[in-house]
């Protein structure tokens, strides 16, 4: 797409682009390329000297059992949050899509958790499920479960998944609702006249028509769980107990900040960059397809 | 539709109400906790109706701060969060509307290169290049400054793409008409483009304000002085693993205060919020 009418000026367009390009180069390209360069260097513990070691950092990384554990943790965490929040949001969106009185009000009451910071969401859930003073941990303990998210890795993970899901439902709900409202009502009515019931109509007509939205949301949710849940993890578990809720992103932070292993941390960043680029590329291809619909 | 509508609507109300209750419950507990004294919360039998300590808790949290862990008044943290969120929103809007204007309304060498250089930044969130970015900010002497909190987070293409998309829908005739009127680029931008873009600007502002207010990792890394702390970081420091040190009533009061501005923005600007969200994610 091009404009037929335009201005011609030699300097002005560059001046207009300058602020954005300067910030992008200084705070995006420079650090991204330094991360790549650093991942090939081995620095001594005091940061006084460094030598080029090629793929040594990567080789060391893939020898660490902790790295594989972080991978598995990330996988478990992101798939649980994606499945749970997508299915809850889809259920709520299909109900909100019915022409109900007060439907707008319900919509408002469901979307505001989007605005809550992930770390604050984490803090709310710690309070609710705190082993000694949490309002909801009393019924759990009454059932005979020794609930202790600070010591038990499974409990810690459950708490993380619940708080991350709680925050993500509103986002998925909005996109599902928009997707549902874009489906022509005549298609569904035609199926109703043909005699198929509501459940069957949903699975044979509505759900397939929603699949582009669902696919988009799966990608976005994975990226969300990868990066935006840093605050939740740091607030709720700090990656513990014993590193068992450390995800890939949290490990970059923990190794670089607390462990002082800059090369290893940079190598992890580079791997993450590749993962994000791959996910984004998938998403763009999908967006292109949607345009042709 | 054909089936028994009343039964289906009843079911819908039921599901939605359960959803709303689940979504609201954690926040309700936080609001409750902000109205009790420490002892009531610590003994684990907090009633489910509000207590009478609200005024005392909010006053202490905003103006004095917690006494044992984080000693900064939360009012100051909120101000820092405000400056950061507004700085990110305004900064992003300014640099992106200017660059989109250049890319769409001018012809110049390297135009598409410039566009792609900006476009590629969509791919990487700040979290993956965190240490090198930290180092650059440190080298520039921007640790513990508002500039350091703001600039690195506005280096992305979302705004530029949004404005570019919007400018593309503006008919060419408008530019031709203002050219006939003798308008130069500045006047066209100020008198035609800017007024037409107001809704898009507002939608982007809403989304970026929430994004900025909710930042966690970046302010955690680059602010060391407690006077520069944002509220989202501040609250985490109030919750310690040693239970005896956590003043839960102050922490929950802070959580409520940290939620109020972004939630109000979403509730009162719902239409703009949805527009901003849907369009920036495209």
TrEMBL record, chain A:
UniProt keyword list: Cell inner membrane, Cell membrane, Membrane, Transmembrane, Transmembrane helix, Transport
Regions crossing the membrane: 12-32, 67-93, 105-128, 156-180, 201-227, 266-287
GO cellular component terms, A-Z: plasma membrane
Localization of this protein: Cell inner membrane; Cell membrane
ABC transmembrane type-1 domain location: 71-283
Cleaved signal peptide residues: none
A GO biological process held by the record: transmembrane transport
Membrane topology term: Multi-pass membrane protein
Subunit structure: The complex is composed of two ATP-binding proteins (UgpC), two transmembrane proteins (UgpA and UgpE) and a solute-binding protein (UgpB).
Classification via NCBIfam families: PRK10561.1
Family: Belongs to the binding-protein-dependent transport system permease family.
Protein purpose: Part of the ABC transporter complex UgpBAEC involved in sn-glycerol-3-phosphate (G3P) import. Probably responsible for the translocation of the substrate across the membrane.
Protein name: sn-glycerol-3-phosphate transport system permease protein UgpA
Organism: Microvirga thermotolerans
UniProtKB/TrEMBL annotation, chain B:
PANTHER family, per database record: ABC TRANSPORTER PERMEASE PROTEIN MG189-RELATED-RELATED, SN-GLYCEROL-3-PHOSPHATE TRANSPORT SYSTEM PERMEASE PROTEIN UGPE
GO cellular component: plasma membrane
Keywords: Cell inner membrane, Cell membrane, Membrane, Transmembrane, Transmembrane helix, Transport
Principal place of residence: membrane
Annotated compartments: Cell inner membrane; Cell membrane
Assembly and binders: The complex is composed of two ATP-binding proteins (UgpC), two transmembrane proteins (UgpA and UgpE) and a solute-binding protein (UgpB).
Summary of the function given for this chain in its UniProt record: Part of the ABC transporter complex UgpBAEC involved in sn-glycerol-3-phosphate (G3P) import. Probably responsible for the translocation of the substrate across the membrane.
Record lineage: Bacteria, Pseudomonadati, Pseudomonadota, Alphaproteobacteria, Hyphomicrobiales
Family: Belongs to the binding-protein-dependent transport system permease family.
Superkingdom classification of source: Bacteria
Biological processes, Gene Ontology terms: transmembrane transport
Protein name as catalogued: sn-glycerol-3-phosphate transport system permease protein UgpE
NCBIfam families: PRK10973.1 (NF008210)
TM spans (from-to): 12-36, 82-106, 113-134, 146-167, 188-211, 248-269
Topology with respect to the bilayer: Multi-pass membrane protein
Gene name of the encoded protein: ugpE
Entry-linked CDD domains: TM_PBP2
ABC transmembrane type-1 domain sequence ranges: 78-269
């Amino acid at each position: 797409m091009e404009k037929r009418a335009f201005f011609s000026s030699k300097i002005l367009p560059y001046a207009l682009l300058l602020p954005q390009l300067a910030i992008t180069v200084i705070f995006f390209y420079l650090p991204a390329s330094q991360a790549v360069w650093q991942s090939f260097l081995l620095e001594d513990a005091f940061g006084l000297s460094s030598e080029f070691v090629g793929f040594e950092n990567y080789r060391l990384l893939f020898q660490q059992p902790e790295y594989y554990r972080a991978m598995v943790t990330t996988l478990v965490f992101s798939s649980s949050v994606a499945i749970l929040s997508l299915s809850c949001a889809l259920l709520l969106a299909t109900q909100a899509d019915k022409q109900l009185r007060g439907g707008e009000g319900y919509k408002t009451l469901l979307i505001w958790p989007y605005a809550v910071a992930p770390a604050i969401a984490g803090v709310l859930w710690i309070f609710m499920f705190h082993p000694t003073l949490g309002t909801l941990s009393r019924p759990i303990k009454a059932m005979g479960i020794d609930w202790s998210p600070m010591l038990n890795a499974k409990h810690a993970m459950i708490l993380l998944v619940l708080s991350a899901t709680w925050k993500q439902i509103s986002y998925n709900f909005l996109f599902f609702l928009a997707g549902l409202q874009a489906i022509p009502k005549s298609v569904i009515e035609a199926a109703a006249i043909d005699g198929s019931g509501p459940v069957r109509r949903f699975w044979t007509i509505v759900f397939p028509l929603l699949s582009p939205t669902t696919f988009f949301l799966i990608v976005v949710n994975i990226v969300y769980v990868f990066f935006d849940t840093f605050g939740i993890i740091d607030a709720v578990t700090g990656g513990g107990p014993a590193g068992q809720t450390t995800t890939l992103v949290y490990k970059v932070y923990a190794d670089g900040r607390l462990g002082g292993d800059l090369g290893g941390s940079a190598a992890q960043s580079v791997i993450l960059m590749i993962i994000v680029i791959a996910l984004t590329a998938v998403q763009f291809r999908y967006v292109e397809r949607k345009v042709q619909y | 539709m054909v089936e028994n509508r009343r039964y289906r609507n009843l079911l819908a109300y039921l599901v939605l109400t359960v959803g709303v209750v689940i979504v609201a419950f954690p926040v309700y507990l936080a609001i409750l906790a902000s109205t009790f004294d420490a002892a009531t919360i610590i003994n684990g039998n907090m009633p489910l109706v509000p207590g009478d300590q609200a005024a005392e808790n909010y006053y202490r949290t905003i103006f004095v701060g917690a006494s044992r862990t984080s000693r900064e008044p939360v009012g100051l943290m909120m101000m820092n969060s405000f400056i950061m969120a507004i700085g990110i929103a305004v900064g992003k809007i300014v640099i992106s509307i200017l660059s989109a204007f250049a890319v769409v309304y001018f012809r110049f060498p390297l135009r598409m290169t410039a566009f792609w250089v900006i476009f590629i930044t969509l791919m990487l969130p700040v979290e993956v290049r965190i240490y090198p970015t930290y180092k650059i900010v440190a080298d520039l002497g921007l640790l513990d400054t508002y500039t350091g909190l703001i600039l690195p987070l506005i280096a992305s293409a979302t705004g530029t793409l949004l404005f570019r998309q919007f400018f593309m829908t503006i008919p060419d005739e408008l530019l031709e008409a203002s050219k006939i009127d003798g308008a130069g680029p500045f006047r066209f931008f100020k008198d035609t483009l800017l007024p037409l873009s107001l809704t898009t600007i507002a939608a982007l502002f809403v989304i970026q304000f929430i994004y900025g207010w909710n930042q966690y990792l970046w302010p955690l890394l680059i602010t060391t002085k407690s006077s520069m702390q944002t509220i989202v970081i501040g609250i985490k420091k109030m919750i310690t693993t040693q239970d005896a040190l956590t003043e839960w009533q102050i922490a929950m009061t802070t959580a409520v205060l940290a939620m109020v501005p972004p939630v109000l923005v979403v509730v009162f600007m719902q239409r703009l919020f949805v527009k901003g969200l849907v369009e920036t994610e495209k």
